[in-house]
Design goal:
Radius of gyration: 22 Å
Strand content: 5-15%
Shape: globular
Length: about 475
C-alpha cells in the first residue's frame, strides 16, 4: 500500500463515548416486575480496538500500518483524489475494510449513527454514488441499518426460475459503473427485486475481529477437548456441535459465520476479493467473469511490494491479518449499561448464564497454545464465550447455504466478548434496537430443530428480574 489515510491511533479510543438510546422501563412493584428487555448498547469508553500490550516497538509499527491499511479507502485505479488504494470492483460491497468493521471501532461490526454518532451512518449508502457511481440503493440497505452482504442460496435459470442447484456465493451489491475511474464499464447490479420475490436472498453482517489472534492461536486439540467435555449434559440438552474443517488438511477452521476460514490471512484475502473486488496473492482472479471493459488493472492488484522497505513491503492482505492478529480482546465493564444495574445484578446474570447452560455452547474461555509471536498470544486465557463449533440453529435461522462441513442450518457459536457494545445481532442483523435487540436474538435460538431449544426453554422459565440480570451481564461483556 502506497499512500495511507491520516493515522488515527487506537490509543485514543478511551476519549470516545457512545450514547445509549435504549429506554429503561419505569420502576414497578416487586410483585409486578417489568418484563426483561435489552438494556441497549453500553455507553462510556470504547472497550475495543487496542493492540496487545505485549507488542514490541517493531510489532507496534506493523500493527499501526495494518490499521492504516484496514481503514484506507480503495478506488478502481488509485486515480480518485482521497482514495489512495486501488483495485476496487467491478463488484463491491464497501470501499474499505473499516467501512464494514467500524463499530465501536475499527475491527468491530456494523455501525449505527444512533448509537455511535462519531462513526456516522451506514457507509454503504455513500458508497452507492461515490465517485459518480450510478448504483441504486436496495431496500435492505438503510442509513441506520446494518452493513450487509448478500448471498443467493440457489441458482436462478436463464428463464427466471429457481433451481435446486446450490449457489451460496456472495453477490456484490454495487458495481463500479459510472465511476470516474471506471470509464466504459457498464455492469448491472444483481436483480434484487427478482431474488426477493423468489425467496432466494439471504444476508450476512460483518463479524467483529477483536481478539482474533487469540482465536487463531487456540489449538485444535483444545477445541476438541472442550467439545467432548460435559458430554452427558450436552446430550441431555440436545447439543451436538462439531467443528468445521479444512477440506485439504482436516484442521479446524474458525473464522466467519460458519467458521469457514482457517486463518486470518485467508479471511483477509477472501474478504478483500469478495467484498471489495481487489485481487490479491491468495485470490488472484477477478470474480464472476467481468467484461473486459470493467477490468482496469493487472492482477493481482494487491501483492508484495518488492521495491519498498520496512512495513511497506508486505501486501495489504498481510497487513490486514497482522492488524487483526494483534488486536486485543474487548474489555468488559460493569459501568455504562443503560439503567445502571448494580454489580450484584451482573454477578447474578453471570451465575444464571451457567445455570441455564448457555455455557454449553458459549464456552466462557479457551486456552491458547504456545506462540512464537508475542507473550500476549502465548498460552493465554481467551474469554471469548464460544466453543468455535458449528451448531444446528433450526429452521428459523437456516440460510440454506453450506460452507465446508457447516450445513444449511448450522452456524458457528458467535463469540460474546464485546457484545456489550454491539448493535445488530444474528448472522443477518435481523435483531435490532427497534425489535428487541439482544433479547430477540436470544429467543431466536429456539427455532424448530435448534440445538439451543432446551437452553432457551430454561431461559424462558426464569423470572423477569432473573432474565434482566442475565441481559445485564451480557451487556457487561
Amino acid at each position: 500500500m502506497k499512500t495511507a489515510l491520516a493515522l488515527v491511533t487506537p490509543l485514543l479510543l478511551s476519549a470516545f463515548c457512545a450514547g445509549a438510546s435504549a429506554q429503561v422501563p419505569a420502576t414497578q412493584s416487586p410483585n409486578h416486575p417489568p418484563p426483561a428487555s435489552d438494556p441497549g448498547v453500553r455507553a462510556g469508553s470504547v472497550g475495543a480496538g487496542l493492540p496487545l500490550a505485549t507488542l514490541s516497538a517493531a510489532q507496534m509499527q506493523y500493527f499501526l500500518d495494518g490499521f492504516n491499511r484496514f481503514v484506507e479507502v480503495d478506488s478502481v485505479s488509485g486515480a480518485v483524489t482521497g482514495e489512495p488504494g486501488s483495485g476496487l470492483g467491478p463488484g463491491f460491497n464497501a470501499t474499505s475494510c473499516g467501512a464494514c468493521h467500524a463499530q465501536p471501532f475499527a475491527g468491530g461490526s456494523s455501525p449505527s449513527m444512533a448509537a455511535y454518532p462519531f462513526i456516522g451512518p451506514n457507509p454503504q449508502i455513500a458508497a452507492a454514488s461515490d465517485a459518480g457511481a450510478t448504483n441504486a440503493i436496495p431496500t435492505f440497505i438503510t442509513a441506520d441499518g446494518p452493513v450487509r452482504e448478500t448471498r443467493f442460496p440457489f441458482v436462478v435459470s436463464s428463464s427466471g426460475n429457481l433451481t435446486q442447484i446450490a449457489d451460496g456465493g456472495v453477490h456484490d451489491i454495487y458495481t463500479v459503473s459510472g465511476r470516474s475511474d471506471a470509464p466504459g464499464c457498464n455492469l448491472a447490479q444483481p436483480n434484487y427485486d427478482q431474488m426477493q420475490q423468489l425467496g432466494n436472498l439471504i444476508f450476512r453482517i460483518p463479524t467483529p475481529v477483536f481478539g482474533a489472534g487469540l482465536i487463531e492461536n487456540i489449538a485444535d486439540a483444545a477445541i476438541i477437548a472442550n467439545m467432548n467435555a460435559n458430554s452427558g449434559l450436552k446430550h441431555q440438552f440436545g447439543i451436538s456441535g462439531h467443528p468445521n474443517t479444512s477440506g485439504n488438511d482436516g484442521s479446524i477452521t474458525r473464522f466467519g459465520w460458519k467458521a469457514q476460514n482457517k486463518s486470518l490471512e485467508i479471511f483477509s484475502g477472501e474478504a478483500y476479493n469478495v467484498e471489495m473486488g481487489v485481487t490479491n496473492e491468495l485470490f488472484p482472479n477477478k470474480r464472476a467473469n467481468p467484461p473486459a471493459t470493467c477490468v482496469f488493472n493487472g492482477t493481482p492488484e494487491d501483492h508484495t511490494n518488492f521495491d519498498a522497505a520496512g512495513t511497506q513491503i508486505p501486501s495489504d492482505t498481510v497487513g490486514f491479518s497482522v492488524f487483526m492478529r494483534f488486536l486485543a480482546a474487548p474489555t468488559p465493564s460493569n459501568t455504562g449499561i443503560p439503567g445502571n444495574p448494580p454489580v450484584q445484578s451482573i454477578r447474578n446474570g453471570q451465575s444464571l448464564f451457567g445455570q441455564v447452560h448457555c455455557d454449553l455452547c458459549h464456552t466462557p474461555s479457551l486456552q491458547t497454545t504456545a506462540s512464537s509471536l508475542t507473550a500476549g498470544l502465548n498460552t493465554q486465557t481467551a474469554a471469548l464465550y464460544s466453543d468455535l463449533l458449528v451448531h444446528n440453529m433450526g429452521t428459523g435461522l437456516a440460510d440454506q447455504i453450506s460452507q465446508g462441513a457447516a450445513g444449511p442450518d448450522e452456524f458457528r457459536t458467535a463469540p460474546l466478548w464485546g457484545v456489550g457494545q454491539r448493535i445488530f445481532f444474528l448472522h443477518d442483523g435481523r435483531a435490532t434496537p427497534q425489535n428487541g435487540g439482544l433479547l430477540t436474538a436470544i429467543l431466536a435460538h429456539s427455532s424448530q430443530g435448534s440445538e439451543a431449544s432446551n437452553v432457551i426453554s430454561s431461559f424462558r422459565n426464569l423470572s423477569e428480574p432473573q432474565k434482566q440480570d442475565l441481559l445485564n451481564f451480557l451487556r457487561s461483556l
